[in-house]
Design a protein that fits this description.
6 strands, 26% helix
């Protein structure tokens, strides 16, 4: 299996690729969360991934922002996609790639937990 295989790619665009991270067990937990979302939520998240793949950035900080100080020094390279209560965390990699490492569907909490940030790091 190669990272260029379709199952690893969340979106392709003129800027680059948004891809799913593979954990130490060979699984893609963020992709699994995405696949289990209702269709309307999947469509909203996919639009964000496609926008990043096309432009290499998303200017709306409500939808895409660097975690920075909230995540502590180790999490400064982590970025958050947010679509209402659904969040995906990842980081930029060389070669015009963004890797989505973790996802969470926050029903009641107002913010990401430190544990969620830790999984993404």
């Amino acid at each position: 299996m190669q990272l260029s295989d379709p199952e690893y790619v969340a979106a392709r665009g003129t800027w680059g690729i948004v891809e799913w991270a593979v954990d130490s067990r060979g699984e893609m937990p963020a992709r699994e969360l995405y696949l289990n979302l209702p269709d309307d939520d999947k469509a909203k998240v996919l639009l964000l991934f496609k926008r990043l793949a096309d432009f290499g950035r998303i200017s709306n900080t409500e939808k895409f922002k660097q975690l920075g100080e909230r995540a502590g020094s180790k999490g400064r390279g982590i970025w958050e996609f947010k679509s209402f209560q659904i969040r995906f965390l990842g980081e930029f990699r060389p070669g015009s790639r963004f890797v989505v490492a973790h996802g969470t569907d926050i029903k009641k909490a107002r913010a990401l937990s430190p544990a969620d940030i830790g999984v993404a790091i």
